[in-house]
Write a structure and sequence with these properties.
Elements lengths: L1 E7 L2 E6 L9 E10 L2 H9 L18 E2 L3 E9 L11 E4 L2 E2 L5 H4 L10 E2 L12 E5 L3 E3 L6 H5 L1 H13 L7 E5 L3 H12 L4 E5 L3 H9 L4 E3 L6 H9 L3 E6 L4 H10 E9 L11 H5 L4 E4 L7 H9 L9 E6 L4 H10 L5 E5 L2
Parallel strand pairs: 11-12, 11-14, 12-13, 14-15, 15-16, 17-18
Antiparallel strand pairs: 1-2, 1-4, 3-5, 3-9, 3-18, 5-6, 6-10, 7-8
Amino acid sequence: MKAAKWYGVRDIRIKEVEEPMIQSGMVKIRVKWCGICGTDLHEYLAGPIFLPTQPHPLTGEEVPVILGHEFSGIVTEIGDGVTRVKVGDKVTVEPIFACGMCKACKAGTYNVCEQLGFLGLAGGGGGFSEFVTVNEEMVHILPDHMTYEQGALVEPTAVAVHAVRESALKAGDSCVVFGAGPIGLLIIQAAVSAGASKIIAVEISEERQKLAINIGAHFVINPIKENVIEAVNELTNGGADVCFEVTGVDVCLNDAIECAKTRGQVLIVSIWEKESSISPNSLVLKERQLKGILGYRNVFPMTIRLIAEGRLPVEEVITEKIVLQNIIEGGFEELIKNKNHIKILVSPT
């Protein structure tokens, strides 16, 4: 079968690889759609970040590995002992590898496992391939009326749902979302669903500004044309209840801190390619909280339900659908060159 493997910075190759064999407790899936994640893009431009350069403790694999962790598909085969999933099921996959034994795992916070890995980053196969096999516990069945495209967006939407649930945001609160890329836009949708009364998006791209408004933001601020801190303070009468930083850009993180109200909260949802610098006094003197968010835990069923009910119209962030053979120029390079793109889905079959 064909698969996209990471070999180095800007070096992803479509290779012919062996089709995975079914094993006990495993589920074999024919991939329908797989999204290019911001993490994939980070790895393409500046990796390895999450990619293992020596055998990963949970998969035993190291680069080159198959990429892709935002995917949906149809079950084609099940291994011995599999009881919850059957052939023909429409599914998505929660792609976390966790040891189950460390302190974090035993506390139920498996998304910050000491040996954390992600399928499609740490080995174990990936969604940018025709078939993938995963443990049954990683598989989530989709309702019949959900599309495979929506199914491929469950994973990034779970990031947004987890971020909002882990924040202090309450119904009637105000929030600022820095960056209207895929995760930022999905956070806006999740904030709408959570009852936020004033949602402000900070974004440079005019196309992304329009999309932010269309999916629920009440205001947009262009940081090139406006002073973000002054604009947020005016719109919120002194600062937002919660700020979500989803850019990985130093100036945006500092603006997010300054835009939070006294005793407000700032959540870092982005993955960073390099170090950042902040002023601790900006937190201390206002008793602001700074919190990191990684991935998700225990929210896939809820996320699927919210999408199925139409409360999270995630398909609105899809801007292109391509085939695997075009993943470089039509996928990664297109996302770099054209900031009007939000989410590009790839079909390996």
